Amino acid sequence: MSSADRGVREALLDAAARLLVERGYRGVRMQDVAAAAGVSRQTVYNEFGDKWGLARAVVIRDNGRYLDGIDRVLSEHRGVYAAVTAAVLFTLEMSADDQLKKLVLTGAGGDEMLPLLTTQAEPVLFTTSARLTEHALRQWPDLDRGALTEITDAAVRLTMSHIMLPSCPPEAFAHVVARMVVRYLGVPEESPAAAAGA
């Protein structure tokens, strides 16, 4: 993809994200996205196929930006417990402030986009789990890949569930997930105080 093509795609995704937040999925037309990006409607169809493909691309890009943040958060901690706690808190805080995720999760303007993070969430879930696993293996190469892959997927799904239906305060939930992860992996469980100072 050329720089010009990437520029058009990014402009379309920016416009679509803005319009989705403002109007909800039902209120966005491909023509509106094209006009906001200064291109023809056919260009939008050529790039994304249909409105669902466009919405999916917006969510996948948003998830990629979130994962860039997670990479930074994980890298700031030496211990697994501290890193998981910080990553979960980062996820919950970012989700609370992310208007696009709120739109998808709450069904504002219709619940059409909810499957992108539930029943049709494979691109987001698989990408998230795989990237977290690879980061963890680079940072803690002694971890067992199979066990890490399993517990990462479970932790991601549990955190997504908590975002949609919180069961306890964010800090408490982050420590629940961290305890689950380190116990499954068989690595030392740090005290909350130690984790905070890691």
What does this molecule look like?
It is a single chain. The protein has helices at 3-23, 30-37, 41-48, 51-75, 80-97, 99-106, 122-139, 145-164, 170-185, 192-197. The chain has 198 residues and is mostly helical. The chain folds into 2 domains: 1-49, Arc Repressor Mutant, subunit A (Orthogonal Bundle), CATH 1.10.10.60; 60-185, no CATH class. It is elongated.
Topology diagram in text:
Layout lengths: L2 H21 L6 H8 L3 H8 L2 H25 L4 H18 L1 H8 L15 H18 L5 H20 L5 H16 L6 H6 L1
Task: Tag the structure with descriptive keywords.
about 200 residues, mainly alpha, disordered C terminus, 10 helices, Arc Repressor Mutant, subunit A, single chain, 2 domains
